Amino acid sequence: MRHFILMAAILASTSICSQNASLKNRIDIEYNEFSTALDSLRVAQHIPGLAAAIVKDQELVWSKGFGSSHFDTGDGLEFKKVTPETPFWIASVTKTFVGLSFLQLEEEGIVNLNAFINDMPGWSEFCGWLSNSPIVFGKDLRCASEITIKNILNHTVNGEPGTQFLYNPLMYSRLSRYLEYVYGNPISAAETGHNKLAQHIEKRILGPAGMTRTMSSQWQSEKASVFFDMSDGYKYKDGRYRTLMAPERHLAGGAGIVSTVNDLAKYDIALDNGLLASDEVMKKLWSPATAPDGAELPYAFGWYVQQYNGENLIWHAGWDEEAGFTALYLKVPNENITLIILANSEGMWWGNPLDSAEVEQSLFAKLFLDIFLLND
């Protein structure tokens, strides 16, 4: 009898080991397939350099660099390879940090998200200029209406505030100025150094998450090595790469952070482990705004939220055509998996509409979703 029990245990153990080995082989195949296809897509989209990371079950399970972070545009010789520790300008992915920061500041009693940005010095002049300009973000902007900080964080500014979604990065850029106003400083202080919002992000997010290769603004002298290691940005045209102008150094609200995919993976893990905020704040962070009729809008606090093939997707992209950077940060909560990609050209941008969330239209997101979700 004891011999029978022992044999049964051995067979069960062998079966489990076999299943685990089979699962590992399948996972290895998926990551290898993704890596090869990702690099091919990078080349096809004329992206000089790209880094990517995947977080699964609050663990960094894969990260890799492709191509070059610095490029001799004269003769095309590559001389600095991208690694997962290469810093990139993350453009509008910065908004995820800003949304979290303002929820933290609200909980601390420093800001009131129902306060009106109309009260901030310089608002009337800025709003008047934008609403009368041909810039799309000024469309149906009603400067006489009361616009709350929450409206800006949810991108529900245009039209009657709080009623509809229209992505408006210029409004987000006002948030660093607004925080200086809250602290009693001139709003110009937001542009002249390591401002209050950048300081908060460093203290309450980057520090606790252990993000030592991330700058909340490019004015952080203690992180000078990140600044000097940062990839250049490029534009591809007529068969040649051209180095673009470096982005502004201050944190504006809509953009400003420099990071690596490995550091953003730390951020993702800290978010999901509840290390950066209370449960109440985390619940708000990814809860979409609602229209007056109760319909959910496709944006929360610094994050897009949408459904795709029955899956909840939480994401943000970054696109800075003037500096030459794109980024993608995509979470699939039900599968507990996250994709992070940073690139040094605009080749990753797919033209997401200003009034909806359609991350599946991204070639890079679709590649990830097809391999890691549809193959399950």
CATH homology group of the domain at 46-108 and 197-372: DD-peptidase/beta-lactamase superfamily
Walk across the major sheet and give the strand order: 3-2-1-11-10-9-8
> And the CATH topology of the domain at 46-108 and 197-372?
Beta-lactamase
How much of the sequence is in beta strands? 15-25%
SSE series: HEEEEHHHHHHHEEEHHEEEEH
Q: Which structural class is indicated by helix and strand composition?
A: alpha+beta
Overall body shape? globular
Summarize the amount of helix as a percent range: 25-40%
Number of strands: 11
Distance between the termini: 40 Å
Plain-language structure description:
This protein has 376 residues and is of the alpha+beta class. It has a domain of 239 residues: DD-peptidase/beta-lactamase superfamily (Beta-lactamase), CATH 3.40.710.10. It has 11 helices and 11 strands. The strands form 3 sheets. It has a 7-stranded antiparallel β-sheet, with helices on both faces. α2 crosses α7 and α7 packs across α9.
What are the SSEs and their pairings?
Blueprint: H1 2-44, E1 49-56, E2 60-71, E3 78-81, E4 88-89, H2 94-107, H3 123-131, H4 149-154, H5 169-172, H6 175-182, H7 196-209, H8 224-229, E5 234-237, E6 240-243, E7 258-259, H9 261-272, H10 279-285, E8 304-308, E9 311-320, E10 325-332, E11 337-343, H11 363-372
Antiparallel strand pairs: 1-2, 1-11, 2-3, 4-7, 5-6, 8-9, 9-10, 10-11
